[in-house]
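Following up on my earlier thread - several people asked me to post the actual chain instead of describing it. Fair enough. Here it is, all 226 residues.
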Amino acid sequence: ARLAAKPGITGMWQVSGRSNITDFEDVVKLENKIDQYEDQLGTYLVKLSSKQLSLNDSQTVSIMLHVIGDFERIADYAINISKKAEDMHSKGLKFSYVASKELQVYGDALKEIMNMTVDVFTADNLDEAVRVEPLEEVIDRLNSKIKKNHVKRLQNGECTIDIGLILEDTITNYERVADHCSNVAVCMLQVREDEYGTHEYLDNVKHDDTQFKKLYQEYKEKYYLN
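Reply from S.P.:
Thanks for posting it. Predicted structure:
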């Protein structure tokens, strides 16, 4: 199932300053389950990897060992984001209208890359996998843009240091979630093709791939910030 269908987790991609204790508890429960699944699956896969496996099965085990770690880290960042929402609520803080709108755009991009990444993994959808990295690059761009806009608001007295620190921490967690989505997609592509190391693979895709540039432009226009 796509993560959008999971209550709690995806709700953390937009931090509005209004905390819902039920949503927070849902995130904690899901994160605890993910920790348990990651531990159990990791133990099983390590044991399985010590057996004599076919090349295809060996690749599958390798992919899963990498990917479950990335998903577990994404759940950790969801907890971090939800705690920031709780912190805002306890201090009676709210983002400005402009900052909230920026986070809405950022959160929409993050939900898309998460849903896409889950589909890549669960359906072994390599056609979808090639779309992840261009969107991750756009998310990096959103991160930089929001930071610059925040500095301007701070200089103009339109934002406080307290809310600024929460904003910085939130978008940092957003960016790290996207990084792990990239890890999953690249792992799927790179292991299947068995041609490059991860960094070399990304360098080749970003600089020599016409499709990458086209998709990057598509997502750049879709998730545009002033």
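Residues 1-11 have pLDDT under 50 and may be disordered. That should answer part of your original question.
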